[in-house]
Design a protein that fits this description.
The protein is an alpha/beta fold. It is 32% helix and 20% strand. The strands form four sheets. Strands 1-4-7-8-9-10-11 form a seven-stranded parallel sheet. The chain has a five-stranded antiparallel sheet with strand order 12-16-14-15-13, with helices on one face. The longest helix is centred in the first third of the chain and has 24 residues.
Length: 454
């Protein structure tokens, strides 16, 4: 879905080296079967991975009981940095051998996730040591493999120190990565300016030619209702998140007074509510405040549709000022020698002299659906209904209202459909089938008008 509908080119996720991925069982005992399956699928849909080099295999973790999230990712420094480097080297060597240097050089390797938060028990200096060994492990496999960090939870976190460390020690980096969220509470929730200020500060630290990947961003860093409703988490499911995302994407390309501060990747976190860090809904809700663009059952949220619109609009940006007037209805088929009588709502201006002008006059009047043009007297009758009869002195026709996104695809539409179903718990299979049918049958936003007039 992400590749097809949204044009997404890369995917990133936690836990590549977690024990449940079965990558590294013990020193020198590595299996890349699951890694290969993941990469092969991405390549089959023309996507590329951003590998997050995390978390620590249990056999190598220095603090066995320090884990994060319920999947128990080991988040402590390695007992031996040389063995950590050997593991990353083995991964890089395998990928180069399997996919070739040209293709493997299109991958990205990001060292860890938010080491300035609870995802790392070590210090900043210990993270830099972790990064240094990972970077050299990859470069020893191939100089063309692209590695970066520090993957911190804000756009300036550790960035200056990271660059200083790499430059002072000659440690290679091909990109810098950070995250950026507007808020982790209701304060500044959905404030596009808050995230833009952070990005502006981050870009100011970097050289203009430094590749910058914002590998997580969003309006709120909170997720899931947990033990109760949380508005900062509910935001992920709402139309407000879609409007916020559109505003951010637009502003990074042309920030007032700064020009472009656009990173080379701006990664929305995350694609799906089927996400191992998340809570499953306590009350069997269909939408329960998770990060995803789609819910547990694959139903797109408003922000999914925002990205779909952005993808289908192309790359040309057109400057506009002020609110645009709504589009006028189009003219439908005409019937020459036919009068639509009755249902009159008035006559148009006397300077209407052609059937086409009569149609446009009807389209400009609220409630007008039909018109009847008098050939000899040049009068234009506006109508909200029709009764047809033969009349050689008349040309009649209808208007076609502008096509709107239907109720299943308008920004609040998914929630509206659920409400029409009585807000059922999603244990009811028929309800899921109903909503997923709407999505399958209406995959795009160009929707045929609900009524056709002839």
């Amino acid at each position: 879905m992400a590749a097809r509908d949204l044009g997404v080119k890369r995917v990133r996720g936690h836990g590549l080296l977690d024990d449940d991925m079965s990558v590294s069982y013990a020193e020198g005992k590595n299996s890349f079967y699951n890694v290969d399956s993941f990469v092969d699928f991405l390549l089959s849909i023309d996507m590329r991975p951003i590998f997050e080099l995390s978390f620590m295999p249990e056999w190598l973790a220095s603090i066995k009981n320090y884990t994060v999230c319920h999947y128990q990712g080991h988040a402590s420094p390695p007992t031996d940095y040389t063995k950590w480097q050997e593991l990353i080297n083995a991964l890089g060597t395998h990928l180069v051998q399997r996919y070739g240097e040209d293709l493997a050089s299109e991958f990205r390797f990001e060292c860890w996730n938010e080491p300035n938060d609870h995802f790392w028990s070590g210090s900043e200096e210990e993270y830099f040591k972790l990064y240094q060994h990972a970077a050299w492990g990859l470069k020893n496999a191939s100089q063309r493999l692209r590695v970066g960090g520090p993957a911190t939870n804000n756009p300036t976190g550790w960035m200056t120190d990271f660059l200083a460390f790499c430059n002072a020690t000659g440690t290679p980096y091909d990109f810098v990565s950070t995250h950026d969220y507007s808020s982790c509470s209701v304060t500044n929730l959905g404030d596009a300016q808050a995230i833009m200020s952070g990005m502006q500060n981050g870009r100011a630290i970097l050289d203009s030619d430094t590749e910058w990947l914002v590998t997580e961003f969003g309006a709120s860093c909170l997720q899931g209702f947990g033990s109760g409703y949380n508005p900062a988490a509910a935001y992920h499911d709402m139309v407000d998140q879609a409007a916020y995302t559109m505003a951010v994407v637009d502003r990074v390309a042309d920030y007032p007074g700064r020009g472009s501060i656009e990173p080379q990747a701006l990664s929305y976190w995350a694609f799906s509510d089927v996400f191992e860090e998340s809570f499953f809904p306590l009350a069997n809700e269909s939408f329960h405040g998770m990060f995803g663009l789609i819910n547990l059952h694959g139903i797109p949220k408003p922000t999914y549709r925002a990205y779909q619109l952005l993808h289908e609009l192309g790359t040309t940006r057109v400057a506009v000022q002020g609110p645009s007037p709504p589009p006028l209805p189009a003219c439908g088929p005409v019937e020459t020698g036919v009068d639509y009588y009755g249902h009159d709502i008035g006559h148009a201006s006397p300077n209407v002299t052609t059937p086409a002008e009569c149609c446009h006059a009807c389209g400009a009047v609220p409630g007008c659906l039909y018109y009847s043009f008098h050939i000899d007297s040049k009068q234009c009758g506006l109508k909200n209904g029709r009764n047809a009869t033969a009349d050689a002195n008349r040309i009649s026709g209808s208007i076609v209202p502008p096509a709107n996104v239907d109720r299943c695809h308008q920004t609040t539409g998914v929630i509206a459909v659920i409400n029409r179903l009585g807000a059922p718990g999603w244990g009811r299979v028929a309800s899921v089938a109903c909503l997923t049918w709407h999505e399958r049958e209406s995959k795009r936003v160009e929707i045929t008008p609900p009524h056709t007039h002839t």
